[in-house]
Design a protein that fits this description.
The chain has 304 residues and is mainly α. The protein has helices spanning 15-46, 50-69, 80-94, 109-125, 133-152, 155-160, 169-194, 209-230, 239-266, 282-303; strands at 198-200, 204-208. The protein is globular. The two termini are 31 Å apart.
Length: 304
Amino acid sequence: MPDNPAADSPDSPAPAKGASSKRRTLLYRTASTSFLVTLVAVALWFSEVWPFLVIFTILSFGGLIEYFRLFPHPGFRRFRWLAFIGAGGYLALLYAPLWGFKADWLGQLDGIFLALLTISMVTSRLREPLEGYRSFDEIAATLFGFTYCILLFSFVPKILLLPALGSNSVIYLVYLVAVTKLTDIGAYLVGSAIGKDKLVPHISPGKTWQGFWGALFFAVAGSYAFYFIAGDHIPIITAVHAGLLGLVIALVAILGDLAESIMKRSLAVKDSGHVMPGIGGFLDLIDSVIFTAPIFYFYLLLFN
């Protein structure tokens, strides 16, 4: 999610312009969020897994493309095609059980594709002269991008494909996304309104402690609201779990948002993209879910 603009320029000499900018940003975010909600509603209407898998595939590849664009030096995009090919093969096999293909080794896909990608990059690097530390950094950057945009984010379809959840897997996923995004919304709204105390200024100057507490409140409130509305469809989540899960998801979502801020600040990049007005690019859209999905998946395995 984008940094809270409330604390970006506290001494701005043109408050009217700042207020106008906030209203415009809020309008853009509202429009983009409404579009996303509509997209999810359409997918829910079909009551099938495949629309969500299509959306996930677009988001994961979009995120990977944006990730490589973050690097100012083209050398760090040297192995991007290997990463894209690896991502395509990984997702094809991840979805394979839907088409009837099953094998024990499918459970080891993450390790298999990390190994294949590493071997492929090292083999490819043999053809050109080494460039000191950067030769190693290019390989490490590609591995991180593949892990971040594909492997971590792949816990979204893994939730959808959990056999124990049956047809309710879609509802569990909607719960996860709803609580995660309410964390973003709470941080933005409260931070914009009353944010003044910096949370981690060396990483994200716009984020405030007020926004942090707003994020926790919105997430827990949203978790309980979802529990009372759709509790029969998500039996694993009890009343006690709804409160604890909302809190944990919020904390991890904030960490996921800060992880993208670390990347952008380290690479001196302001925005990862402009796909969704008021929100940003693909990475801005999925940064929180990239971290919350693995935690929620583990929760489902633990308490199922």
